[in-house]
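Protocol step 4 of 5: obtain the predicted structure for the target chain.
Materials: sequence only (see below). No template structures provided, no constraints applied. The aim of this step is simply to have a reference model before the mutagenesis design in step 5. Sequence pasted as it appears in the construct record:
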Amino acid sequence: MTPAPPDFTTLNEAELARLDALLASANEKWPSFYANRQRPCPFFVDAPDENLAGWLDAGRIAPGLAIDLGCGHGRNALHLAGKGFRVRAVDFSESAIGWARERVAASGQRVEIIQASVFEFPFEEGSADLVYDGGCFHHLAPHRRHQYMARVARMLRPGGHFGLVCFAPSGGSGFSDAEVYEKNSLGGGLGYDERRLRELWSPWLEIEAIAPMREMPASSQLFGKDFLMTMLARKK
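Step 4 output (structure tokens):
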């Protein structure tokens, strides 16, 4: 019988911070990760996520305020701005934010770029029509997931949407929540299947779709890798 995952929901901030310290090395790379723009990284491209583009083109999400969490160098934020959204793009990495600001300036689009932790930047509750996470969630330690999901739900207006891209099990480290703390590592990121995504997010949001990301050819104007999962959910 598979043991139940640890329950972190009752921990106070001091206890959560102690767990942060155990996994501090998992976040050490991010401030400078985007500094080498020639790094052979699959998402160092201009193209937006194929699932995001598809949802917008199908009219599943109407333009309004979009908050892009873990925006990286801004590829999805710029696509949203081009589709008529007011965009706030947030990332912890100094090098990512610098790159995003350059790209926004060159594009002529209007995007508010914020360098901050996704747990600390200020927002107006119930204001967002879309919160989008194109690769942040799978880098969160298990003890911070509850806090993250609560913040996402608070950002959204009733009827607002949450879009997610995360590692599938085939793309993640394969670590269970318990193993993260046994090894003091996320192993590069955690993978989530449909069952686990529903288990985690259904208490917060109404899930509309979960599917593997489509693999897109290098020549495509869209980004897609089949080791990722996508989810679209709505606040009731």
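Step 4 remarks: Strands lie at 65-69, 86-91, 111-115, 128-133, 156-167, 206-212, 228-234. The mean pLDDT is 94.
Proceed to step 5.
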